[in-house]
Amino acid sequence: MVTLKSFFLFFFILQFLASDVGEAAAAAGDGRNGAARQASIPVHIGVVLNLNSTMGTMVDVCISMAREDFYSVHSDYRTRLSFHIKDAQEELDVVSEVMELLQSEDVHGILGSQKLTEDTFATELGRKAQVPFISFTSRSRPLSHAKNPYFIQSVADNSYQLKALATICKGFEWHEVVILYEDTDYGNQFTSELNRELLKEDIRFAYMIPISASASDHHVKTELENLKNNQTKVCIVHMSAVLGGRLFILAKSSGLMSEGYAWLVTDDLANFLNSMYSAAFDSMDGVLGIRPHVPMSEKLKTFKERWKKNMILTKPNSMKAELNVYGFRAYDTVWALAMAVEKIARENSSLLKLKNGETDQSDIFNLRISQFGPELLNGLHNMTFEGLIGKFQLIDGQLKPSALEIFNVVGTGDRIVGYWTPDRGITQDLASSGYKCYSTSTKELKTIVWPGDSVRKPIGWSIRATGKLKVVVPWKLGFKEFVNSTIDPVSNKTKPLGFCIDIFNYALKYLPFEVDPEFHAIDANGTSGYDHLIHCLSNKSCDMVVGDITILEDRAKSVDFSLPYSESGVVWVVKNKQEKNMWIFVKPFRWDLWVTILATCIFIGVVLRVLEYPANYNSESVMLQRQQLGLLVWFPIAVLAFPERNMVANNSSRFVLVVWLFMSYILMQSYTANLSAMFTVDQLDFTFSQEYYIGTQAGTFVRKYLINHHNISELKIKEYSSVEEYHNAMLKGGRNGGIDAIVDEIPYMKLFLGQYGSKYKMLGQRYRTKGFGFVFPRDSRLTGYFSRAILNVTESPDMNLIEEKNFGSGYSSQNQLDSSINKQTSLTTYNFGGLFIIIVSATIFTLLYSVPSLGKQLIGLSLIYILKSLSFLPLVGNFFRINSSVHSCDGKDSSSEQEVEMSEQVVGDSLAMVDMVDHQSGQGDSNVSVEGNESYQRNDSNVSPR
Fold it and tell me: What is the phi/psi pair of residue 320, to 5°?
């Protein structure tokens, strides 16, 4: 019974034969019309394929279609490519077939899909025979193109794929990967090159798994079980489609295609996804891969339809073969060969008629040197055209790279989520225009469905196979505000509390992955103390240690620490001893400030006396004037002592008093504050003696620190475990079995001073440490994640809440440290220099404004003093000599007497002006005015007329 499938097969065969008969008839018709074509010149090209493989079958049809399509378009060309196809299933078969083509078939070029060992062999034969070897699958480059010019690869170099893989891993922040590769020479070379590229991005191989193509399923499954127990969850697969299909089927059955894993395949497998069995493809759900981008066009779509028809007609038993990029490249390569051959024929047709030349006598293979090969090689390198899937152009013997597409296997198909280009990196769309920097951000990609139908990006590793984070915490007797480890009687599990545990729990919220901690308490008391906790990480029995563990250089040699989350430093704490000093009340101000205050007080009194002189002057009471002169000193103080009395009469005086009161208020407040600080803070410096006993916390590093850095005897060091024990030991004192000082870290001492702060003080000097941090094994991946999380916690308002919860509301304040560390000193004049400048300037301005004549007198006296100082100059000297001669006429003999009279005249004039001003303003009585006028007249009579 004829099936439907057989019917369609028979129909396609008839259609194909009918098209061949039509073409033959057309050719015969052309001959009958007398327009016979010129005889074409054949150019022999060898083709070596494995015709029993999917690749060989697919490429064979593409080569045949490429020749047919080319000459149907270019029917007028004189040359015709003549292919000699050889079937080679093994590597030795390839060698023998190539030798036969070079020796017997007289070929000028060879096409094939070589492996690494075949590449090396082909490279050497091509160089000897000067025949180009063209591969459309191989991307290995064992030697430079300058040394091997006859080996041509019509595909892009592997370096672009390697860089794309490294960029993707960096974008997803995967710092470790596992490589599973086919155990061949090419696979080993690819893995080595990939490792070098990943190291450039600080990504390393966790381990490598080579799998042979002939490996049994049991062997593959054993390797996958080892992978399952490893923490690294990012796997890069570089295998053929056959071996890769087996791998993913076994991986799915082993539970490795679940959430948390990331699988990335290279184009060796990605290009053959359509040719894989359905079971293998279904097991790859969630896989990410890269492959060359093939832009879809109408020409390509038509070619795919024609290719399927030819596969059914010519190779009906190869229904599994699917068209991919290798077939497209083979198609374009045939077109490039045909165009290059025709161009050579037009430029030098005589080369086409020459056969290969004489053999090289030194060659053991007796290969004949091709005369046409060098010209064909140059023609291929100079060939540029738009091929089936893009621009065809060779650069240094390799095809110019194009974009790589990043795809995601979802369900029964795959979808493109983005692209990678050599100049732009990761991008979502190739059509975007404009300059853009190289991008490594995976945010450019579309949504990816990962294994396990998860859209959450895998972090690339897991904490443990159990999924729990094993955390060791200290069990201690005191200072339980930091860590308080208890055992739940119901579940028998450790339930830690305290400041350090709260920091850890808050940090978990900022991690990019979920963590299920499992706490285990270990005794931290005794001499070994916290060092015993750190040693637990060396055998990898736990993942981290959380507690009040100080970051030290010696410890960092064997473990890794996170960033600190507490204050750093070691300090001394001693008893407060109050100073007994009957003159302490003068200490708030230094002597220079006291002198400045007194001078300012006198200056203010003088100014007030000058301003109040017209109102209070009484010529009949000499005693009253003497009493008023006494007020120069105590008048400003009297204003402060008796502010209710009306002691000034004019507005200028009131302004000066306001300024004086402002200065006095500031000085009194400063005095009070500094005196209070001196009464509350001990100013006695602590001088350490070797006879003192020192207390430290049990189990910490401070004991060794005192012995190694301060040469303190072990007999003088006592260990305690709580705040109360510290306090009781300090009350006893070193002579009574206690201690004289405490040496411990700042967080503990802040807690101690918060409870007994009035009785103790923290010395100013502190010894630097790095603070508390979480501890991890060397090169732990958790270190970086927790360090970034700690930064988020310490910089957030949650930090204050954590401190107040465990230590009380006063712990976050730094006042208890600052008051103990900063030593109080007396205030000086310099501290109030700005205040005194303002006060004096305002007072002088008021004085000059209220008494203008005083300013004129000062200016006159200043001018006289300046002229006398410059009397050595000729002009000034003449002036004084003229004055001297004038006064000589009045009977004055000596110049000194004349100068005295001149000074008296100036002073008299000034006083007279003051009296005139007072008289005009109505201040003062008539007697004062008369006396002032008489004085002025008397002084004026003594002046010689000019």
Answer: -80, -20
